[in-house]
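Why should sequence recovery work at all? Because a backbone constrains its sequence more than one might expect. Tight turns favour small or flexible residues, buried strands favour hydrophobic ones, and helices have their own preferences. The token representation captures these environments compactly. In the example below, the structure is given first.
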């Protein structure tokens, strides 16, 4: 999965091993300056491989959403990495494949990942 800014728009993509891609893109560009970006993933059930709903928010307002028909039940490929501000593994999104490693040129103050069963 990847979350990135492209030409000012916030984009989220869930790439299920290139078999199915689910994409959410904000309709408007993000405002200049400091913003709080949230991505909420709600899995349909605790059963491995369940569907999920993804909601993107900027400063608390919803800016995009997508449905993921199935999630990967175990893990992503061994060649993938957990990156912030750059995609150092194989490019997750086709939209920035030719621009890899697609480094973010802004400032990221904090990243917080939480799991709520």
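From this structural description, the recovered sequence reads:
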């Amino acid at each position: 999965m990847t979350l990135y800014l492209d030409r000012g728009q916030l984009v989220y993509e869930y790439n299920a091993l290139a078999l199915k891609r689910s994409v959410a893109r904000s309709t408007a560009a993000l405002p200049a300056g400091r913003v709080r970006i949230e991505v909420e993933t709600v899995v349909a059930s605790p059963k491995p491989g369940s569907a999920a709903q993804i909601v993107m928010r900027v400063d608390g307002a919803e800016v995009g959403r997508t449905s993921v028909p199935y999630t990967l039940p175990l893990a992503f490929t061994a060649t993938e990495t957990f990156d912030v501000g750059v995609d150092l593994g194989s490019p997750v999104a086709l939209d920035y494949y030719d621009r890899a490693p697609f480094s973010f040129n802004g400032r990221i103050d904090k990243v917080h990942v939480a799991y709520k069963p």
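A few observations help interpret the result. The two ends are 20 Å apart (CA to CA).
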